[in-house]
Specification:
This protein is an alpha/beta fold. It has one domain: Rossmann fold, CATH 3.40.50. Helix content is about 50%, strand content about 15%. It has seven helices and five strands, in the order E-H-H-E-H-E-H-E-H-E-H-H. A five-stranded parallel β-sheet has the order 3-2-1-4-5, sandwiched between helices. The longest helix is centred in the last third of the chain and has 13 residues. The protein binds 1,3-dihydroxyacetonephosphate. The site of 1,3-dihydroxyacetonephosphate has 12 residues, from helix 3 and helix 4. GO terms for molecular function: methylglyoxal synthase activity. This is Methylglyoxal synthase. Catalyzes the formation of methylglyoxal from dihydroxyacetone phosphate. Keywords: Lyase.
Length: about 130
């Protein structure tokens, strides 16, 4: 499966904890991330991750483009709901595209843990996409 990992700055400690806790599961999949998130996770876990641009510099849009092109199966995006983001339109566009294409999307650590367990149990598929 192809998994995208993204976190806003105040959520980066959470995504690092998540990546450490679920490292063995994540290592079985193809991982993508926005720039800074990817760099931090690679540094902390040694996971192999394909890095896009940093979120505010177009990374969210690159991930959104992958969603639209059926190149992702799961998006974990730990959003900071309490801090205004300069690239809020990009954030909204990515979330919207996940809904347009029925891509599983976790926006907080609890839902992310459920998704990663489902991923490990082979319960995530792109059947919705393939039927379009
Ligand atoms: O801003 C982001 C998501 O909107 C994340 O980008 P970085 O991983 O580059 O910090």
């Amino acid at each position: 499966m192809r998994v995208a990992l993204i976190a806003h700055d105040k959520k980066k400690p959470e995504i690092i904890d998540l990546a450490k806790k679920y490292r063995d599961i994540l290592a079985k999949h193809t991982l993508y991330a926005t720039g800074t998130t990817g760099t931090l996770i690679i540094g902390e876990t040694g996971l192999s991750i394909i890095r896009m641009k940093s979120g505010p510099l177009g990374g969210d849009q690159q991930i959104g483009s992958m969603v639209a092109d059926n190149q992702l199966d799961l998006v974990i995006f730990l959003r900071d709901p309490l801090t205004a983001q300069p690239h809020e339109p990009d954030v909204s566009a990515l979330l919207r595209l996940c809904d347009v294409f029925s891509i599983p999307l976790a926006t907080n650590k609890t839902s992310a843990e459920i998704m990663l367990k489902a991923l490990d149990a082979n319960q995530i598929s792109n059947k919705y996409l393939s039927s379009k």
